[in-house]
Amino acid sequence: MTIQTRIEEAASQANPRVTARTNPDEVRHDWTREELQALYDLPFNDLLFEAQLVHRRWFDANQVQKSTLLSIKTGGCPEDCGYCSQSSKFDTGLKATKLMEVQRVLEEAKKAKEAGASRYCMGAAWRSPKDRDMDAVCAMIEGVRAMGMETCMTLGMLSVEQTLRLKDAGLDYYNHNIDTSEDYYKEIVTTRTFADRLETLERVREAGINVCSGGIVGMGEEKSDRIGMLMALANLPEHPQSVPINQLMQVEGTTLGHSKQIDAIDFVRTIAVARISMPKSVVRLSAGRENMSDETQALCFLAGANSIFIGEKLLTTKNPEADKDAQLFAKLGLEPMPAHTCPSAK
Ligand code: SAM
Ligand code: DTB
Ligand code: SF4
Least C-beta-crowded within 10 Å: which of 79, 109, 306, 319? Predict the structure, then answer.
């Protein structure tokens, strides 16, 4: 009997406790809060089984996509996001820099490719890009693409014209997180609204660029906020092709420098509900791996996470060393996901 047949047989013996039974083939955009909550609250083994059913329908369960991040413009940001080391409203001891030279970015990208990244993600501490920066940003996209890597940018809010320029330069993904539920957003950021975030996401989607959007947990939010965030993502007109779930990296000096950490099982539950509600999206076990055990990360992969950041730095905070990740992949029998294999990517 093949694994697939055994799984189908197990799935057909529906667990009577699973009231929110999912159909792995179906991609829905009409999730109710009650349905997502029922999934989140399933007995843990049932939740992970449901997540595996969906995961194996659309992905190779042992492949994990690898991205590397670079902060192309660090610090001095006018926004007041309560989690962020780069906001000028907090004293976090971070040195602000100007936009990096294109050539230096390409040198760093080359190293990331050699280290095994299939996507290069470039982030700038801006509320939104200035038009005068767009030539350099587009040259970075073109240069990284020419190396055969997928490109991702996160530059803040975009105008329609800026979005179209990024598309023309060949940008594969744009990262713009909704971060948390609409209700809790106001507690975390006051210099822009949840609706502003959705507006940029709409521009990116309509320009035909793949959307990377997710959020952060461990910011003192309630379970209902995690569910609200997942519901907002899963009910977008198209699911983001990439869904990063970040565990807050606590930064001294920020509002959330000492917030209550999330329980590891709750973190895994959040990943599983993301997997089930957005079946064809790549779900990224994003920031926070530095503070996670191998066992927690293994549970995240079992729950359907299939992307990570590799490289010793995220934007400004730490990420596991390369040899530690190599050991984890070997221990778990994981393989890198080749570029351009996301089933929902454009
Ligand atoms: N300024 C742009 C923006 O806000 O969209 C791009 C850069 S911003 C640093 C990208 C994302 O990183 C944020 O939306 C947030 O979700 C995530 N992030 C920032 N600081 C974080 C932290 N301390 N822990 C976890 N995630 C964080
Ligand atoms: C995302 O969701 N996580 C990344 C990326 N998108 C841009 C950023 C994580 C930042 C963690 C804190 C830091 O290193 O400054
Ligand atoms: Fe600025 Fe982005 Fe940090 Fe907010 S998350 S302070 S917008 S860099």
Answer: 79
